[in-house]
Design goal:
By secondary structure, the protein is α/β, with parallel strands linked by helices. It folds into two domains: about 180 residues, Aldehyde Dehydrogenase, Chain A, domain 1; about 130 residues, Aldehyde Dehydrogenase, Chain A, domain 2 (3-Layer(aba) Sandwich), CATH 3.40.309. Helices cover about 40% and strands about 15% of the residues. The chain has 13 helices and eleven strands. The strands form two sheets. It has a six-stranded mixed sheet with strand order 8-9-10-7-6-11, sandwiched between helices. A five-stranded parallel sheet has the order 3-2-1-4-5, with helices on both faces. The protein is globular. The two termini are about 15 Å apart. About 35% of the residues are buried.
């Protein structure tokens, strides 16, 4: 696909997705959205609307131009079939892989997660309306991926071991578990703290870009931060989230693990980057070297970091964890370059 067509087609897709997110209750796609929500209890009307809007905003034509200026799309060997194994933890989490495959001129053969099948049908329908050629360029399957030329697979650490074995003969990108963290300085105001709440609680904390760990300076007043979390107090009305929170709270009480509890989330001092749903881990630091050492020790497990002030490594602003740009590749692997070099 040449650059001009790519920018035009996917810019139009972005426009349509933004419109869809803004006129959510009037869309003819509402039956599919309702099926998606029924299929996955973690998907809510609000989270699906947010995902569609975020993808649409990322596909603004100026952003597409900036992204694609770094590539020569004419170097691709098009019409290869790329298998994509999609995750289903948050709505349309695998969209960027689909986007890169189509822009590289290749065919998508996607094995969708059982937890997210309906929303991709909406994406395909809109693309086919824009250009009918996409009808044969995008195929979804429930079967084992066969007759492919390359594979992009996203899953847990356990499933990644299976993917690495089964798909080792193909050019591949295989992603494992990753988590994100926030680096706090103590200079954050209440609005900043509410932005951190967005990074933590959006999509119930299920995404690899959700903050699950806090690096905080010694003597940091966690109670002020916890107060800002009240922005998301309605989350305790979601049964699956509440069940996780209640379970983790019972474990902490039985094992006498020190923690803070605001009624819907638990904060505990723990060095682990990964925390269960309903729990946020935190660790104190004395100086910037402590931060750098933690980042270095966990660099292969960190998806992104957020902070108010830029550090000596890439961070996003507070509240921006779930707003990646097109050039913000998962696991820092350039998916489009990989596909263009097949």
């Amino acid at each position: 696909m040449d650059k001009k067509n790519a920018i035009s087609i996917f810019g139009n897709l972005g426009t349509e997705l933004v419109k869809l997110s803004q006129s959510f209750d009037k869309t003819p796609y509402m039956p599919l959205i309702q099926k998606a929500i029924a299929q996955n209890p973690w998907f809510t009307k609000e989270s699906v609307q947010m995902a569609l809007g975020a993808i649409g905003s990322s596909l603004q034509k100026n952003k597409l131009i900036k992204w694609l200026d770094n590539y020569n799309l004419n170097t691709a060997s098009p019409n290869k079939t790329v298998g994509i194994i999609m995750a289903g933890n948050i709505p349309l989490v695998g969209f960027h892989d689909l986007l890169c495959t189509l822009i590289s001129g290749n065919k998508v053969l996607a094995k969708l997660s059982s937890k997210d099948q309906m929303l991709y049908s909406i994406i395909k329908s809109i693309l086919v309306e824009i250009n009918s050629a996409f009808d044969s360029k995008i195929e979804f399957t429930d079967n084992t991926l066969k007759n492919i030329d390359a594979i992009i697979a996203t899953g847990s650490d356990n499933s990644a071991r299976y993917f690495e074995y089964y798909f080792s003969k193909y050019p591949n990108i295989i992603r494992k578990n990753r988590n994100s963290l926030a680096i706090l300085t103590g200079d954050e105001d209440f609005g900043d703290m509410e932005n951190i709440a967005d990074d933590i609680f959006t999509y119930f904390g299920l995404g690899c870009r959700n903050v699950s760990f806090l690096l905080i300076p010694e003597n940091y007043d966690l109670k002020k931060l916890i107060k800002a979390f009240d922005k998301y107090k309605q989350i305790d009305g979601h049964s699956k989230y509440t069940n996780n929170y209640d379970y983790q709270k019972a474990i902490m009480l039985m094992n006498q693990i020190p923690h803070y509890d605001n009624g819907f989330v638990l904060l505990t001092e723990n060095d682990s980057l990964t925390s269960p749903i309903g729990v946020i881990n935190y660790k104190y630091y004395k100086n910037e070297s402590d931060i750098e050492n933690y980042i270095a020790a966990n660099k292969n497990r960190i998806q992104c970091a957020v902070s108010k002030t830029k550090q000596g490594f890439k961070t996003y602003g507070l509240g921006e964890a779930q707003q990646p740009d097109l050039w913000d590749y998962a696991d820092n692997i350039d998916t489009l370059k990989f596909l263009l070099n097949l």
